[in-house]
Amino acid sequence: MSIVTADGGLTTLGYAICVIAVIALVLVAGFLREKAGSAKKMSTKQLVFCAMAMALAFITSYIRLFNLPYGGSVTLFSMLFICLIGNWYGVKVGIMTGLAYGILQFLQEPYVLSFFQVCCDYVLAFAGLGLAGIFCRSKNGLVKGYLLGIFVRGAFHSLGGYLYWMDYMPENFPQALASLYPIIYNYSYILLEGIITVVVISLPPVAKALQVVKRTAVKE
Question: Is the sign of the CA dihedral 4, 158, 60, 132 positive or negative?
Fold first, then answer.
């Protein structure tokens, strides 16, 4: 049963899956946040740090090492700033910050084929970065959470790729790998930026500096 119509829109099933995905993200965030004992309103400091992280992510998203022809680029650690919010304040705040950042990304470079495509490429993909907060209390939680966040982002981009972007596959792309084209395309730039970022944040001086910032961000 198809979730996409012939003209690129959504069927009833497609809309249902989109709604379920959003609800699932919010419920997971709410459950984990409540379980962690942090079910309280955001403080002014948290709002300020979230706004700063979004601003830094937005600015660094313009600093690109290279661009891919059909969207996607390796940026100067732009995904990290959203993952930091999840690491500092938990999953729910991380997802909401990622959601807001996804809307900014859409306003920055809007490309619309259908409602569900926008959800995959912008709303759900960047909200998924907030899942980095799942490991906020774990050892090496930032690295673990960052890797989870970028994996989820890539998964939503790949889903959109299978549904909407297969016709854009280059003719010289190896046919043996054609069924993996959206996954290879999207994870090529996401994982490259991810590897660079993990290497940098794992450097002792950088890791120590991030710990200092985290203590400032979460201090009551």
Answer: positive
Q: Pull the structure tokens for residue 54.
A: 């979004």
| HEC per residue, the chain | CCCECCCCCECHHHHHHHHHHHHHHHHHHHHHHHHCCCCCCCCHHHHHHHHHHHHHHHHHCCCEEEECCCCCEEECCHHHHHHHHHHHHCHHHHHHHHHHHHHHHHHHCCCCCCHHHHHHHHHHHHHHHHHHHHHCCCCCHHHHHHHHHHHHHHHHHHHHHHHHHHHHCCCCCCHHHHHHHHHHHHHHHHHHHHHHHHHHHCCHHHHHHHHHHHHHHHCC
Confidence of residue 21 (pLDDT cuts 50, 70, 90): low
Compute the distance between CA of residue 204 and CA of residue 68 in angstroms, rounded to an integer.
32
Which amino acid does the sequence have at 79? M
pLDDT tens for each residue of 138-162: 999 999 999 999 999 999 999 999 9
The token pair that represents 8 in the structure block? 């690129």
**Phi-psi sector, 43: left (phi>0), alpha (psi -120 to 50), beta:** beta
Please check the confidence at residue 37 and state whether its pLDDT lies above 60.
no
The single-letter code of the amino acid at 186 is N
CB atoms within 10 A of CB 207: 14
CB 157 within 8 A of CB 114: no
